[in-house]
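Researcher: I need the complex structure. Ligand is guanosine-5'-diphosphate. Inputs:
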Amino acid sequence: MKGQRMYLSEMEEGQTGVITRVGGDGSFRRRLLEMGFIKGSEIYVEKYAPLKDPIELVIKGYHVSLRVEEAAQITVENVREGKA
Amino acid sequence: MKFPKTLTIALAGNPNSGKTTIFNNLTGTRQKVGNWPGVTVEKKEGHLHKHGYDFKIIDLPGTYSLTAFSLEEIVARDFILDEKPDVVIDIIDSTNLERSLYLATQLRELDTRVVFALNMSDMAHDRGIRIDDSKLSELLDVPVVYTVGNRDEGIDDLLKKVIEVAESPKGLPKERRVKYSKDIEEAIAPLSDFIADRVQDSFSYDVRWIAIKLLEDDAVVKKRVLEGTDNHHGKIVLEEAHKHRERLTRQYNEDPGIVMTEERYGFITGIIREVLKTSRKSRVDVSRNIDLILTNRFLGFPIFIFFIWLMFQMTFTLGAYPMGWIESGIDLISGVAGGLLPDGLFKSLIIDGIIAGVGSVAIFLPNILILFFCIALFEDTGYMARAAFLMDKIMHLIGLHGKSFIPMLMGFGCNVPAIMATRTLESRKDRILTVLINPFMSCSARLPIYILLAGTFFAGRAGNVIFSLYLIGIVFAILAGRLIRSTLLKGDTAPFVMELPPYRMPMFSSLMIHMWDRGKIFIKKMGGIILIGSVIVWALSAFPQNIQFSRDYDAQIRGIEALYQAKMSEVTVPAGEALESARDDAIAELERARSAEKAEKSYIGRMGKVMAPVFAPIGIDWRGSVALLTGFVAKEIVVSTMGVLYATGSEEEGEVLGNVLKTSGMTPLAAYAMMLFVLLYIPCLATIAAIKRETDSWRWALFSVAFNTSLAWIVAFVVYQGGRLFI
Ligand SMILES: Nc1nc2c(ncn2[C@@H]2O[C@H](COP(=O)(O)OP(=O)(O)O)[C@@H](O)[C@H]2O)c(=O)[nH]1
Ligand SMILES: [Mg+2]
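Model: Output:
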């Protein structure tokens, strides 16, 4: 199985997935892409903030945060437990 | 002697790559901080003499890319394109090579000489990351130097490389650039030729680069093409680019800009494969462990609140000492000036106008320095990003970014440094909004007014009343924030794509430089606008000189002196002492009456009387109006002006003033309306100057004046008139 496909915002703490698509409007998409949210990149959910929003992620070896509503624009697959 | 040659060097790099650290290493204190023309992005410029050269060094804003989506990116790109620095140093965070190379490839696409500084090489080494520098240098045809910014290592090598590159006769390397896929290259090539034929001469930019940017639909470049050429040719070029874009969009079923971004990353992945070796040392990740606590679900907020509490504690308890020294210093200067200068107008200008006015603001300098030291500490350690991470959910409700929280909180201390602290916000709209709602955070200068009025009219409940004012301030900040966000500053909230950099040990020198930068701005402001404002208010209250007093105070004072003289000659010593103090009281009483009358008949008093009809509906008499007018210079002046006008003498006698206020006919309702007005009305002069500075526009400063003052009046009116219906 190629693993489940879901939105990044649905992933839980401690899970890793692979980005398949970044949605959203033009400038937001470009910005994310430029920061390394490229199709095929592995992304790890480090933690949710105490108020459940934003999310701390690890991508290409660095930590970055995104709001939940923004993470809902990113589709991931192959979601599994643990760090890449 | 040879004239030193000047080389202009620009530092580019991602945020947190160590740019400022290297800039400070290079320039030391020979730097000045200003704004880029027309925008509120900070510009740092410094000088260095070395190896027979005069280096002019510019710290470009930290960016992840040069796409021109943010002001920072536009500023950085325009500088490289238009000012044509001799060399651009790209500061690369070696622990983040892949992401850093994105900006690096974009720099390579621009027609400019680049040197790479592989900074943070110590951390990369610790993490088992090895970068093959000669391979990287070969692949991109760029000289590469290892550096450790915070230990000043490799900086001299970097300079030598810069000189070498600047002096090399070899033209710009054209080959080792990103190669896009066939379809895109097949659009770039004809479009470049097309541009070269039509508009080449109008631009000094590389045509390939223009072609790429047009394919990406870059708004800034499109505008340049239209403006920089006669309109006809510009339009033709844009139409041609549009055709290519359409074709590519159909072909890829995707925006060509996105495709090209992905392809650049593809190119980077190729480079990474060849130059990067990571030995999987399983080391403890210190940063992650710290965050287990600092952004912990349960501990995160309590610790954050504790840090904020500590910051204010330090600001006010530690700050109290130097504040005291400055106060005595001002008293001393005032005393010396009083002794040296002959009585008269000039003396009054110096002492009551300049020294008192500037002095009342100058005493906040220590607080401001300490606050900014703390802010720099938050920034440089990496904690600021965590604070934003914690607070973002709450701040987002007002349409703001998590990072806006700290400036808002600082507003409770003083709005001026708070507004200066909005520099840490990347989005211009967020920054302006945070600046505009900041004055609603009740600063400490307003507290004396509340204490006086609430203490007088609400005795036992004074604490609750004052607390209610702070809350109302916050509520209005939220409401105003939402209102402005949905009208004047409409548009997308900046996405919260924020890097959480690893925690780092800050450098003391960098903290000091940061603190001093802000301190300097504050001091300049005192020497400028505050000085002028103080002189104006002084002049308005000192003139006209020849007032027709209703009574002849001098004669009456002489009369009292004579009267008591006569009485005292008849009594024994102890009774004489009692008489003496009675005489002094009587004289003081007359002098107070005289200064009250003088204030009433001065220009500012007359202005107060003219304004009185405006203030009457909110329960404030002409004396209150004058006090509020003078509060424009600094809010703490309100109480002392009231002291003068109600003829109670100095402001220390708060209780006396309170009693006078009660007998003057002010009601608790009127007092509350006045406090609301003070909370919301026109920000003080220093704050307005800060708003002007940080928004880089008088329009926003004036908007703030008009908006806050009308809001204050309406709120006070509703409360006062509404309250009268019930009471
Ligand atoms: N370990 C390490 N830390 C560094 C190095 N260069 C800078 N720093 C630290 O990294 C943090 C961010 O640096 P700064 O110059 O403010 O980054 P900027 O955002 O690019 O201006 C500071 O705490 C610096 O002391 C380096 O080479 N090694
Ligand atoms: Mg910096």
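Model: Summary of the prediction. Residues 182-278 of chain B form a domain with the Helix Hairpins fold (CATH 1.10.287.1770).
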